[in-house]
Amino acid sequence: MALLIERPISVMGIELSQIYMRFSYVVNLSGTAVIVDAVNYASKEAYEADVRNNILIPEIKGNQSFSYVRETDGDILQFIHNKYKEILTTDNVAYTRVKDPSTGELIHQEYISAPRFAMDSSISIVDVGDVSIG
Known about the structure:
Elements: E1 2-11, E2 14-27, E3 33-41, H1 44-49, E4 54-55, E5 63-67, H2 70-73, H3 76-88, E6 92-99, E7 106-114, E8 123-126
Antiparallel strand pairs: 1-2, 1-8, 2-3, 3-4, 3-5, 6-7
């Protein structure tokens, strides 16, 4: 199972049209959180070969930690894929304090600090067959 992102991106001068993501994870001893390491590949062939064919994409955070409860969150791989899809398709929002011109009062104003990496329709969970990790 892989996360496939289909969108144009330039990585170190190389133009790509798709990225495959593989996840490895560790569930904490209490079973309430999962730590995920995401690795990006430029093609299905690179994903299948795995051996040091991964690429760094600055916009994709490689390590994440999520709250996870098996009874409510279900299958861990599906959970991780859905979490990363959510992260990649959501704008990062921040707030700044500004003075309201009509009242002079300080208010919080929302702005997009980092735009989403991809549209929801360009990310899918795909089965890449029985690939063993070397």
